[in-house]
């Protein structure tokens, strides 16, 4: 059996994440301790016990989500690692993907994503923006909707292509609000403002690129052990140099999740897709695009045990 790993991004965090894993498995406990030490903060306490508003802050959510995904991987790596053929991560999850592929150690990845979270928050404060989820099929393309809203009110762009019926837009507040109006007029079922601190995956994040570049260069990278399908262009990445460049571009470019999923399903139609970390958002999106795919979430002790049993059955 082959496995494709999916690593969740910001928005999947919840209080209690990883707590049972850390209690049950020394390897998971060691990962959370390493992340705490790397960032100089009690990320594990926030993940396990909250409070929720502190965990949700960008600079905390990013290392917490990375730690949870890395903790699961530490527990299951020996059992399934040799049969992983590819991985992809949604936004922040792309950093987790490179960790599980052996391209970067967990402490180094934690320092980078902590810095990324700080930079994104600071830029959001310096130039306030908004993000909104557009649900449903539009009669006008989302690119045209954003282009018209940009001309009329302020810069706004597609930020996450999550599925055929879910796109997130990002940009200046007035531009996002106008795009929501235009999307509703074009047949959107719902348009929802998201509780975020900035216009992520948009040109408004451009000033954060230099700081993230410095953080990436400060750590040691290796070529990944298996391909990571990148957010920016939905193509496989097999070199450390390309990984860092694409992670920089990701700050201001849209997440091509729909294309990523279609590519992975087409290339690995018989693989089991495993969402490794908090929640089941990515497996839900995957099933909408490919209802027959084998997919499961793996973030709790019970789910880890299920995956290990599945792996043993197919040795």
Structural notes for this entry:
With 315 residues, the chain is of the alpha/beta class. It folds into two domains: 232 residues, Malonyl-Coenzyme A Acyl Carrier Protein, domain 2 (3-Layer(aba) Sandwich); 69 residues, Alpha-Beta Plaits (2-Layer Sandwich). Helix content is 51%, strand content 16%. The strands form three sheets. Strands 2-1-9-10 form a four-stranded parallel β-sheet, sandwiched between helices. The longest helix has 23 residues. The N and C termini lie close together (8 Å). The relative contact order is 0.17.
* Shape, principal axes of CA atoms: globular
CATH topology of the largest domain: Malonyl-Coenzyme A Acyl Carrier Protein, domain 2
Q: What fraction strand?
A: 15-25%
Helix count from the secondary structure assignment: 14
Q: How far do the termini sit from each other?
A: 8 Å
- Name the average pLDDT: 96
Amount of helix: 40-55%
Largest sheet: 4 strands, parallel
Structural class: alpha/beta
What's the gyration radius in Å?
19 Å
Main sheet: strand order: 2-1-9-10
Question: How do you describe this structure in short?
Answer:
With 315 residues, the chain is of the alpha/beta class. It has helices at 19-24, 26-39, 43-49, 52-56, 58-80, 92-100, 106-126, 142-152, 173-185, 209-217, 240-250, 257-267, 281-289, 301-313; strands at 3-7, 84-89, 130-135, 156-163, 166-171, 190-193, 228-229, 236-237, 272-276, 294-298.
Feature tags:
2 domains, globular, alpha/beta, Malonyl-Coenzyme A Acyl Carrier Protein, domain 2, 4-stranded antiparallel beta sheet
């Amino acid at each position: 059996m082959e496995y494709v790993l999916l690593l969740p991004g910001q928005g999947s965090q919840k209080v209690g994440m990883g707590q049972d894993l850390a209690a049950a498995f020394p390897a998971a406990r060691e990962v959370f301790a390493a992340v705490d030490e790397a960032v100089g903060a009690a990320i594990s306490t926030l993940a396990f016990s909250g409070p929720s508003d502190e965990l949700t802050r960008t600079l905390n959510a990013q290392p917490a989500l990375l730690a949870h995904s890395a903790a699961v991987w530490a527990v299951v790596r020996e059992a399934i690692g040799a049969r992983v053929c590819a991985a992809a991560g949604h936004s922040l999850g792309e950093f987790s993907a490179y960790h599980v592929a052996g391209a970067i150690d967990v402490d180094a990845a934690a320092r980078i994503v902590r810095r990324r979270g700080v930079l994104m928050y600071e830029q959001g404060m310096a130039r306030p923006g908004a993000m909104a989820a557009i649900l449903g099929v539009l009669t006008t393309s989302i690119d045209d909707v954003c282009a018209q809203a940009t001309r009329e009110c302020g810069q706004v762009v597609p930020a996450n292509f999550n599925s055929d019926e879910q796109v997130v837009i990002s940009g200046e507040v007035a531009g996002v609000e106008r795009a929501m109006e235009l999307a509703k007029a074009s047949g959107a079922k719902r348009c929802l403002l998201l509780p975020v601190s900035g216009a992520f995956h948009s040109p408004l994040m451009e000033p954060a690129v230099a700081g993230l570049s410095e953080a990436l260069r400060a750590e040691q990278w290796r070529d990944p052990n298996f391909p990571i399908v990148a957010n920016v262009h939905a193509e496989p990445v097999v070199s450390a140099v390309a990984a860092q460049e694409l992670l920089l571009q990701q700050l201001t470019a849209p997440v091509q999740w729909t294309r990523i999923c279609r590519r992975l399903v087409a290339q690995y139609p018989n693989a089991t897709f495993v969402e490794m970390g908090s929640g089941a958002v990515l497996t839900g999106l995957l099933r909408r695009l490919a209802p027959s795919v084998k997919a499961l979430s793996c973030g709790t002790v019970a789910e880890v045990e299920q995956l290990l049993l599945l792996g043993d059955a197919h040795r």
